[in-house]
Amino acid sequence: MKYIVGIGGMTNGGKTTLTNSLLKSLPNCCVIHQDDFFKPQDQIAVGEDGFKQWDVLESLDMEAMLSTVQAWTISPRKFARAHGVSVQLDASDTHILILEGFLLYSYKPLVDLYSRRYFLTVPYEECKRRRSTRRYMVPDPPGLFDGHVWPMYQKYKRKMEANGVEVVYLDGMKSREELFHQVLEDIQNSLLNERRGPAPNAGTQTQFRPQYGQAGGIPARHCVTISLWGSLYI
Ligand SMILES: Nc1ncnc2c1ncn2[C@@H]1O[C@H](COP(=O)(O)OP(=O)(O)O)[C@@H](O)[C@H]1O
Ligand SMILES: O=C(O)c1ccc[n+]([C@@H]2O[C@H](COP(=O)([O-])O)[C@@H](O)[C@H]2O)c1
Ligand SMILES: [Mg+2]
């Protein structure tokens, strides 16, 4: 069985932290980080506000991300081998892929591929505080958060909701441990249900239809991590 989990939501909601914990506990689990698909700086448009528009879908090479997801979907084992990782399998033959990023549910070709979509949020003040401590590859210029990051977050979230994309909201103010256990348990339950039979709404929650792009090479910056079967068997 192939199972794709989205760990999405706002910047600094705790997506990468949660994903790293899940990877250690979920069997045969690969991850694709959306951040690894940012286009080079010279291809990022400058808005009328004077800010580089990092927080829009066009700043990401989503076709390349889709191709990477597609490669996993076609053969998770081959995908793992292609990245030099051996995967131990047991009889259940479950393969999990985590997609992690801040604009996971706004790209139509991907949106219906998820088995489960999580969405982390924290209040504005906490998001701004956490962001002020972060150092990205390209540091935030003064005023970027209020002038670009936050308005774009709100815009894409509104669109996602208007499109009827079903997500499981997660309170990013909970402790790292609480979030980890909550999501791990939820994924385990969801996997059990999937094994019992297809969920009535799986893959059909929105009007979007998957449209696969051309499969291509995986850009060098793209990082794929594989975690092997651990002590946990689902
Ligand atoms: N549950 C949490 N509670 C408090 N701080 C957190 C929590 N999860 C992550 N953090 C911190 O918030 C910051 C952003 O976390 P990160 O996982 O990188 O977020 P994202 O990938 O969503 O931008 C980091 O400093 C991280 O240590
Ligand atoms: O990683 C990069 O190259 C990069 C360059 C410029 C900006 N970013 C920021 O990365 C943010 C998304 O990552 P994250 O982990 O905060 O969800 C997004 O809000 C961008 O503003 C990231
Ligand atoms: Mg992150």
TrEMBL record:
Biological process annotations from GO? NAD+ metabolic process; pyridine nucleotide biosynthetic process
For the keyword Nucleotide-binding, the answer is yes
Q: Which InterPro entries match?
A: P-loop_NTPase
Q: Which GO terms describe its cellular component?
A: cytosol
Q: Does the keyword GTP-binding apply?
A: no
Catalysed reactions, semicolon-separated: beta-nicotinamide D-riboside + ATP = beta-nicotinamide D-ribonucleotide + ADP + H(+); beta-D-ribosylnicotinate + ATP = nicotinate beta-D-ribonucleotide + ADP + H(+)
Q: Please provide, alphabetically and separated by semicolons, the GO molecular function terms listed in this UniProt record.
A: ATP binding; metal ion binding; nicotinate riboside kinase activity; ribosylnicotinamide kinase activity
- Protein name as it appears in the record: Nicotinamide riboside kinase 2
